[in-house]
Amino acid sequence: MRPLIAAIAVGLLVAGCYQETQRPRDAYVPKTHAQQLNNQAMDALKADRNDEAVQLLSQAVEEDPRFAQAYVNKAVALGRLGRFEETLGLLATATQLEPDLADAYLFRGVFAERLQKTDDALNSYAKAATLLTAKMKETPAPDLATSRAIALYLGTGKVQGLEAFNAVLAQYPDYSRARFLREKIQQGDRAYFMWWVADQDSR
Question: Of 65, 95, 101, 107, whose CB has the highest number of CB atoms within 10 Å?
């Protein structure tokens, strides 16, 4: 896997870092061992050990069935293995547990698009963008703004996607991830935004 692509995918979306670092006071806290398993799975994903990540995340949700982010991360790992149908159920469970889990909807959009479920994909992208907009009002952050820009691009197309990325860079001019992804949109490289759930294309 190309290192830059891996860094963007795992760092920006997979780990769900903003849920971890900006967790509301009354939010559910995963069990310690389940969190440890999730963290080990993130290391495995970064190293492209997707089967290992699936096993670790299966253990994590068995240990703590209410650990919503672990379901999202397991869906991502399965998506990298091309097992798209299995991902939708996991993401549905995640959003039942945490209805405002924006990355679950963003990934659902990508998996649904891979399965040619266009309406589901568009609805999921729109929901992700709405949730991310609300989160940005509470706690502005470049990762949140970039994830929102991705959701808008995938859900509405190049024009709104570029507008969203321009807004990110106006606020965070030194944020290299947003600049890199905006260039991909300008190049018409929509497939790039799909790679992190169907990684076979880059092998």
Answer: 107
